[in-house]
Design goal:
Elements: H1 8-16, H2 18-29, H3 40-44, E1 62-65, E2 75-82, E3 126-129, E4 141-146, H4 150-161, H5 163-173, H6 179-190, H7 196-221, H8 228-236, E5 245-251, E6 255-262, H9 267-283, E7 287-288, E8 292-293, E9 296-297, E10 300-301, E11 305-312, E12 315-316, E13 326-334, E14 352-360
Parallel strand pairs: 1-3
Antiparallel strand pairs: 2-3, 2-11, 4-5, 6-14, 7-10, 8-9, 11-12, 13-14
C-alpha cells in the first residue's frame, strides 16, 4: 500500500487545468498514454531509485468492449490501472487513513473506436466494460461474543480502582494465602467502588467459586473432568452470570466479483477482447527484477492496482456504489462459454466468459461517506 496519502488538492487543481485538458485530448487522438498527476515528493525523493526497470515501463491507452461509442448517457464500468509504488527505505509501515481511495478520474468514456489501443496496456491505461447483469455490493464488520462473569468483572474493577485489591484477590486465587486472610484487605481496598451489600455478595460468591474450583481440581486427580461451573450447577442449581456481549473485533475488506460475456462481432472487436484479457492477466501478475542469484530474482514486486468506477457518461454514476483501490485476485476465462468449441477465421472464439475478482486494499470507514455525499456511498 502507498506510504503517504495523495495530495488531493494539488491533484484536483492539476486535472482541472487547461494544460491537462489539452494534453489529454492530444494523447487520446494520438493513441498515447493520458498524462497523470505526479506527486512532487515521490519524484524528488532521493530514496527512490532512478534506474529504469523493465517492470516500470508504461504503455497506456484505452481498451473497450463492446465497441459501440459511449455517449453522455451510457452506463459502464471503468477500470483504471495504476502501478503499485512504495518508497524504498520507508520507515512508516502503517499507511495513513484514506491511503486506498481512488486517485484517478480519467474522462475517456467518449473515446472513438479509432483511438482505442492496439496493444495491451501495461502499468497504466483504462479498460471500459459494459455493466454486468449481476452487480451487488456488501459491507460487513467482524464481531465476536465476549464473556466476563461478575467475579472477573469485579476483579478488573478492583485492578482499575486499586491495584492492591486486585493483588490480594490474585493471591487468594493462587493459594498464596487463605481467603479469610485476604477478605478484610479486599473489603478495605474495593469498598470505595462497591456498596456494602455488594461487597459482601461479591465475597460470598467468590468463596463459593473458590470452593468449587478446589473441588474440581481435587477430582481431576482421579481422572474426573468436572468443571467449576458444573459443580456449582449441581450444588446450587446456578452458575456465574457470563454477562455475554457482542463486541466489535475489527473491520473487513470487501471483495467484488464480475462476470462478462464476450461475443465479438467484428475483427476489431475480437482484437479488443484479446487485449482486454491479456491486460488483466499481465497487470495482476507479480513482477520480478532487480538483484538476482543464479538467474532467479531475490525479490518480487506487488502487482498493479485497479481503480474501479461505475460511470454514466464521463461522470461517476449518481446511484451505484463506489470503490476503493483494489488488487485483482483472480482472472478466469472460459473460451467455450456456449458449451462447444467454435472460432472465427482468425481463431478467435465466438463466445467467451471473463470472470474477475477484486479485493479492496483498505476497509471502508465511517468518515469515507462524508467524502462521498452522492449515491449510496461505498
Amino acid at each position: 500500500m502507498p506510504n503517504f496519502p495523495p495530495n488531493y488538492a494539488a491533484q484536483e487543481k492539476f486535472y482541472a487545468s487547461e494544460e491537462y485538458q489539452t494534453g489529454a485530448k492530444k494523447a487520446i487522438a494520438n493513441n498515447q498514454p493520458i498524462p497523470t498527476y505526479q506527486d512532487p515528493e515521490s519524484v524528488s525523493d532521493s530514496r527512490v531509485t532512478s534506474q529504469p526497470s523493465r517492470s516500470s515501463k508504461k504503455r497506456g491507452g484505452i481498451l473497450r468492449y463492446p465497441m459501440e461509442a459511449l455517449t453522455g448517457t451510457t452506463d459502464y464500468l471503468q477500470i483504471d490501472i495504476k502501478e503499485y509504488i512504495r518508497q524504498p527505505g520507508n520507515t512508516k509501515l502503517i499507511g495513513a487513513k484514506g491511503f486506498g481511495r481512488n486517485t484517478l478520474n480519467n474522462a475517456v468514456g467518449a473515446t472513438r473506436s479509432g483511438s482505442l489501443a492496439t496493444k495491451s496496456v501495461q502499468n497504466t491505461g483504462t479498460i471500459l466494460l459494459q455493466i454486468p447483469s449481476d452487480i451487488k455490493d456488501g459491507n460487513s464488520a467482524n464481531y465476536g461474543e465476549s464473556k466476563m462473569n461478575t467475579l472477573t468483572g469485579a476483579a478488573a474493577g478492583a485492578l482499575a480502582g486499586g491495584m492492591k485489591a486486585g493483588a490480594e484477590l490474585v493471591k487468594s486465587l493462587g493459594g498464596q494465602q487463605t481467603f479469610d486472610e485476604s477478605k478484610e484487605k479486599i473489603k478495605n481496598d474495593i469498598g470505595a467502588n462497591l456498596a456494602p451489600g455488594e461487597t459482601e455478595a461479591l465475597l460470598s460468591a467468590a468463596q463459593q467459586g473458590l470452593t468449587a474450583k478446589a473441588t474440581s481440581a481435587a477430582l481431576g486427580v482421579f481422572g474426573a473432568n468436572v468443571s467449576t461451573e458444573q459443580l456449582l450447577a449441581r450444588q446450587s442449581g446456578q452458575i456465574f452470570n457470563p454477562n455475554l456481549e457482542l463486541l466489535f473485533n475489527g473491520p473487513s475488506l470487501r471483495s467484488f466479483s464480475f462476470s462478462f460475456k464476450m461475443t465479438p462481432r467484428s475483427a476489431q472487436e475480437a482484437r479488443q477482447c484479446k487485449l482486454i484479457i491479456r491486460s488483466f492477466k499481465q497487470n495482476m501478475a507479480p513482477k520480478t527484477g532487480g538483484d538476482t542469484i543464479g538467474g532467479s530474482a531475490i525479490f518480487m514486486k506487488s502487482p498493479n492496482l485497479f481503480e474501479l468506477r461505475y460511470r454514466k457518461g464521463n461522470k461517476d454514476h449518481p446511484f451505484l456504489n463506489k470503490f476503493k483501490q483494489c488488487f485483482l485476485t483472480n482472472v478466469a476465462v472460459n473460451y467455450t462459454s456456449e458449451g462447444v468449441y467454435a472460432t472465427y477465421d482468425d481463431a478467435t472464439p465466438i463466445s467467451m466468459q471473463l470472470d474477475l475478482s477484486f479485493k479492496e486494499i483498505e476497509p471502508i470507514y465511517f468518515d469515507d461517506y462524508d467524502k462521498s455525499p452522492t449515491g449510496v456511498g461505498f
